[in-house]
Design a protein that fits this description.
alpha/beta; Rossmann fold; six-stranded mixed β-sheet; four-stranded parallel β-sheet; 9 helices; amino-acid biosynthesis; TrpB-like_PALP; cysteine synthase activity
Length: 301
């Protein structure tokens, strides 16, 4: 009988594709290649599929949780969707806490996977959502996996995302660019790439002052993710909301890549890097798909 794969088995191994029109003639003249890693190809549609299944599997292995338990997580969207999918696959009740102003598509997708949603005030942001999740755990209402402090988050990127980029570029990668939210992707991937070649430059994309970009955060000191290792990031570029949204539209129209706004922010940062280097292989993470943002008005109706 054929050895059929499960949903879990097809998480990861996402493709790298070369930007053609956005990179422009200048990148070609300087010998630069800009590559997009299409994490929207994961089963639940984002890079967060990797840590979601990693956190649940490893918590099971440690005996921290077992099927039938209630899991709680504060999320801006993609981790919640991924956890809802993983909980459905492995038999958990999933309670997700998210600010009320995030896109309706994300909320609907979480519910489609069977998750229960608690919406928190927009003014409180993700900080309030995280505080509420911790309070619910203290009240005995479930177990918080805590993507912000759980080492199984960056660990899966060290084990999978980093090696995939290294192998698919045949070790030629010179720069890795990622939006910074929970920081699991950039921390784990950086650790692997720098072990393979300490000269690889790691660039994080963060929102500029006053910008609100789903999936990219600049955390107050008290809420800085515990998994974040600043020694793994060489440079941070500030991306404006306007530039990220414009790049999302351009990615779709000029490259045929229908990507989310944080992915577009990472693309914008990758192009900034390309403008000042030569003979570089620049990889950026396309962390999700654009259909999660249709109700936001970023894409023309």
């Amino acid at each position: 009988m054929p050895d059929y794969k499960t949903v879990e088995d097809v998480i990861g191994a996402t493709p790298l594709v070369r930007l053609q029109r956005l990179a422009g003639e200048e990148a070609a003249r300087h010998g630069n290649v800009i590559l997009a890693k299409l994490e929207g190809n994961n089963p639940a549609g984002s890079v967060k599929d990797r840590p979601a299944i990693s956190m649940i599997r490893r918590a099971e292995e440690r005996g921290d949780i077992r099927p039938g338990d209630t899991l709680i997580e504060a999320t801006s969207g993609n981790t919640g969707i991924a956890l809802a999918m993983a909980a459905a696959v492995r038999g958990y009740r999933m309670v997700l806490i998210m600010p009320e102003d995030l896109s309706i598509e994300r909320a609907q997708t979480m519910k489609a996977f069977g998750a229960e949603l608690i919406l928190t005030p927009k003014a409180g942001g993700m900080e309030y959502a995280r505080d509420l999740a911790e309070q619910m755990q203290r009240d005995g209402k479930g177990r918080v996996l805590d993507q912000f402090a759980n080492l199984d988050n960056p660990r899966i990127h060290y084990e999978t995302t980093g090696p995939e980029i290294w192998n698919d570029t045949q070790g030629r990668v010179t720069h890795f660019v990622s939006a910074m939210g929970t920081t699991g992707t950039i921390t784990g991937t950086s650790q692997y790439l720098k072990e393979m070649n300490p000269q690889v430059r790691i660039v994080g994309a963060q929102p500029s002052e006053g910008s609100r970009i789903p999936g990219i955060r600049k955390w107050p000191e008290a809420y800085l993710p515990k998994i974040y290792d600043p020694t793994q990031v060489d440079e941070m570029l500030l991306v404006s909301q306007a530039d990220a949204e414009d790049m999302a539209r351009r990615l779709a129209r000029e490259e045929g890549l229908f990507a989310g706004i944080s992915a577009a922010g990472a693309c914008w940062a990758a192009l900034q890097v390309s403008a000042r280097v030569e003979n570089a292989t620049i990889v950026f993470i396309v962390c999700d798909r654009g259909d999660r943002y249709l109700s936001t008005g970023v894409f023309p109706a």
